[in-house]
Amino acid sequence: MIRFFANANYDFIGVRKYAYAVTGFLFALSLFALAAWRLNYSIEFTGGTLVQFKVDPSVQVDVAQLRGALDRAGVPGSEIQAFREPGSYTIRARTAKAGADADNTQTTAAAVSSALDQTVGQGKYRLDRSGAVGPKVGGELRTKALLAIFYSFLAVLAYLAYRFEWRFGLAAIVATAHDIILTIGFIALMRLEVSLVVVGAVLSMVGYSLNDTIIIFDRVRENLHKYKRDHFADILNRSVNETLPRSILTHGTTLATLTSLAVFGGEVIRPFALVMFFGVFTGTFSSIYIASPVLMWIEHKWPGAEARGVKQAARAAGAGEKREPVGAKG
Amino acid sequence: MVVTTLKTRIGIIAVAIVASVIALIPRAQTLRVVDSETKQVKDIQEKRVPLKLGLDLQGGMHLGLELDQSKRVSADPAKDIDLALTVLRKRIDEFGTQEPVIQKQGDDRIVVELAGVTDPERAREIVQRSAFLEFRITDRSEALDKALPAMDRTLQRLGVKAPTGAAPVTPSAVTQLLQGDTSKKQPIGKDSAVARDTTPVLGGVLSSLIQPASTAGFQLFPGEYLVEKGAVPLVDSLLRIPEVAALFPRRFEYRWSANDVSIGAKAYQLLYVLEDRPIVTGSSLVDAKEDIDPLTSGPIVTFELDRKGARDFGEGTGKNVGNYMAIILDDKVQGRPPVIQERIERRGQITLSGKTFQEARDLALTLRAGALPVPLKIVEQGQVGASLGADSIRGGILAGLVGTLLVVLIMAGIYRVSGMLAVGALGLYILFSLGLLSMLGATLTLPGLAGLILSVGIAVDANVLIFERIREELALGKTVRLSIDEGFRHAMNAIVDSNVTTVMTALFLFQFGTGPVKGFAVTLTIGVLASMVTAVFVTRTFYMIWLDKQPTMQTLSI
What we know:
The complex is a heterodimer.
Chain A: H1 16-37, E1 40-41, H2 43-46, E2 48-55, H3 63-72, E3 79-82, E4 88-93, H4 106-119, E5 125-133, H5 135-163, H6 166-189, E6 193-194, H7 196-226, H8 232-264, H9 270-301, H10 310-319
Parallel strand pairs in A: 1-6
Antiparallel strand pairs in A: 2-4, 2-5, 3-4
Helix pairs in contact in A: 1-6, 3-4, 5-6, 6-7, 6-9, 7-8, 7-9, 8-9
Chain B: H1 6-24, E1 27-34, E2 41-48, E3 52-53, H2 55-58, E4 60-67, H3 77-95, E5 98-105, E6 109-115, H4 120-128, E7 133-137, H5 143-161, H6 171-180, H7 190-198, H8 205-209, E8 224-228, H9 232-240, H10 242-245, E9 252-263, E10 266-275, E11 280-281, E12 285-292, E13 299-305, H11 307-319, E14 325-329, E15 332-333, E16 347-351, H12 357-369, E17 376-384, H13 386-440, E18 443-444, H14 446-475, H15 480-512, H16 515-549
Parallel strand pairs in B: 3-18, 9-15
Antiparallel strand pairs in B: 1-2, 4-6, 4-17, 5-6, 7-11, 7-14, 8-10, 9-10, 12-13, 13-16, 14-15
Helix pairs in contact in B: 1-13, 1-16, 3-12, 6-7, 6-9, 13-14, 13-16, 14-15, 14-16, 15-16
């Protein structure tokens, strides 16, 4: 029988201060990345025009030529990105053609394609993907994305309050917020483009991280009934340890599929896989080191019916990290 | 567990498998396509797996449209958008594309999704064309010639005042002035533009730009005027200045020709002075067909009017025999107005000079479907090439296979025989997910495909939870049978709670998402539900079969 971390007995709660330091460092890094590079929103959110095309091998064209043609066509300042595959380019024009109605995407799209016709030549390139979004539509989408995250928070809080207790719900939400902030920092650090697919990945990551937290909380709820005289901190530690084999395995299979997606899934899916990949780690980290300590802190601050032993536990935990291991089995 | 007898369980699983397989068997589907030879829309039968693919996977285009009120303000936007929706449905239905999506989004937007479109420019044209058709009699009284001197005087008077910037020349008119004047490329200020462009010809600016006299061999019809192509925007903006517009002959309006006329090296556009009342409009049309003119072998569109339309048309043409009748589509005069030879009633034809047969067919199509109440503007558009879509599918399938293989190895390596049971359940999970997708008619998009592959990794979570629980129970010294029972029972809470929250986030994702993301949310929800059912129900049944075969099992391979 292969068992990972069976009968594990790590003092997760005891080392939470170190974990906070790690979190603090990652937060600082995220803020730095956000300040330094900002988020690179896709045209779906900012409005603008995108054209991805592959040039016929017989035609010689370089980025400077394309840029010149775009400037002449009235869409200056466009980003031009060359792919690894030779002859594959993406043009992103964030602003509308000068003097055109920005919400009427047609003029700008036409200007970009006329610039292509001039430099590359009509019929000498294959259009892989193109899109044009007016700023109005982009703005709406941004609002909707934020609302989706906000409402899903409320709904999860309500559900957890119903199934567990509001304290558990709040702790889970804090952990999830932590994950979202770090993930956004990761997106900024990796200079990933925030597209609809990436927002989808962030929301999936939220679901995954919550899932992980709930598995632990479920154990906590069970152990609270089982070990009625134990301290809260001990119960938290025991629960994290007991769910550890499951966590390792599930994260393992999830990372396996994500790796496969990142390697074979193609350009469009890769950012999704990367963001989720990071999400698996931060989700695991936050379930153990954020959700559980926050739950303990909440219990300490607003003791509930289950709050026995919290004060002593908090005091004991605060007294020193080299406390005796707790929650040993049998 | 509610269902306890093994036979019932096996029966339920068998039914689910059969249903999923049936849902996924390639079947004949009716596709509306354009015949490559005759260019006619026709319905064909083709066998394919009944899974709807999103635009990002099969290639195609989507358009977000809103009313364009910059030219004509809509009196009732809510009604007009519904009307436009109906018109677009009719048009696209005849356009020939597989399963087009035409729906309202919010209150003021129409979303059109056309899969497998190879000519996006043409699709855009068909969607956007207003197709407002009207017939008007051209002026024979030279009313404009008589009014021109007065208009020029007014312009001169305004021109003197214009340089101060207080002239009633609207900013848009000025930008038109600038764009229209091809000789001056360098940007110049608004005020100086008016001064420079108009002052030197103030003697009779309109008279000199509108040339009523025959220009070297070009015979003008009554009510027809030649304007140099470059000067068209200028003339148009001058005629729109309120003071000038007030002097325009009463009961007449002007329109531009759709096509250019070249005389020598110069291109001209024709200006038409027309009666302000159309004798009949496209709303009276009951049918329109593309055809070929036997005389010129050029493309034409023949049309048929309804009863009232025929009466109006007969009356209007009967009164005007010998006069010229302009055919106006979307405010542009099509071809040169023909002479009315005799009273015309039900049927007529529109000659399209310099157009292709394809264009004639598109015009007939849009005329049949009716005019858009208000022009539409494209606020959002997207296009994915079929080859990129095919690449995505190939990449997705490869990623799915490799990912599934890795998961199978991990599960079998760690949980041995129990792991193999989970792998069997995983296989059924994939089958059920795809079957459900097909049964619900959900669309599989690229993010959805990614979600499905990801869910293979996450789907085993329920099994992992159960197996770990069983291991714990076994470690407590319980019998195999009891450990399995307890393992399933204790893992249930965690499985339900964690999956409910995932479905909740997916629902919000569905709520806010557009096309591809919606597809992702649907796939995720289906994946979570299917994984719960297979992990809890199917794996349990497998265990029951196993225990049934070896009732005296002492150690469990887990």
